[in-house]
Design brief:
six-stranded mixed beta sheet, six-stranded antiparallel beta sheet, mainly beta, globular, 195 residues
Length: 195
């Protein structure tokens, strides 16, 4: 499983009994549309009162890496060189659909990864980010799953800003509830690298 679990998973019975992984083990800070997310133990990450609908969320454009040390010309130049030397998203229309969810990002608390999401004309009022595989669990002893949460009004193109603590493969899920009460989930497979 891509949730950081150590126990072997041989069926959905095993998966449901896994402890959810803590998103804060990977993400140092997350902002959406300039709004800093709030960490919470969610009782609603994977339990819709209605059937899931297809996600209308998609990547938009090329992700970028920015230096958090904006007063350091060296750090800014390093981030620019990283962006120049790395293709972080393959935007080809010929790319196989399962690969369209894959992007690359930079690890380290001195770098911010800027990922633009196209939310379309739909207004989302409740968004939660966690590991995708956490949605297959029953949660912890209290039935909760650690998430980064945003509430408000999000529509159009929104920038998701993520600072990753470590490198590795991360399969994340952005659970979204729109103003009409429809639930959907956008999957992001992020290869977090150091160089």
């Amino acid at each position: 499983m891509a949730c950081g679990c150590n126990d072997p998973v041989n069926s959905w019975y095993d998966w449901a009994h896994q402890m959810p992984a803590n998103i804060l083990d990977l993400v140092a800070i997350a902002r959406l549309g300039g709004t800093t997310g709030a960490f919470l133990n969610s009782t609603t990450f994977n339990t819709p009162p209605v059937a899931w609908t297809a996600s209308g969320i998609a990547y938009s454009g090329e992700p970028l890496v920015a230096a958090l040390a904006t007063d350091s010309g060296l750090a800014i130049n390093n981030a620019n060189q990283f962006n120049f030397g790395h293709e972080l998203r393959n935007q080809s229309v010929l790319l196989a659909p399962p690969l369209q969810k894959v992007i690359f990002a930079r690890a380290g608390t001195e770098w911010e990864n800027l990922i633009t999401l196209a939310l379309g004309g739909v207004t989302y009022t409740d968004l939660q980010l966690s590991f995708r595989d956490n949605a297959g669990t029953r949660g912890d002893a209290q039935g909760t799953i650690p998430v980064i949460s945003w509430t408000g009004s999000f529509t159009g193109n929104q920038q998701l800003e993520l600072v990753f603590k470590r490198k590795g493969q991360a399969v994340l899920m952005l659970r979204a509830i729109n103003a009409a009460g429809d639930w959907s989930a956008f999957e992001m497979e992020i290869e977090v690298i150091t160089a």
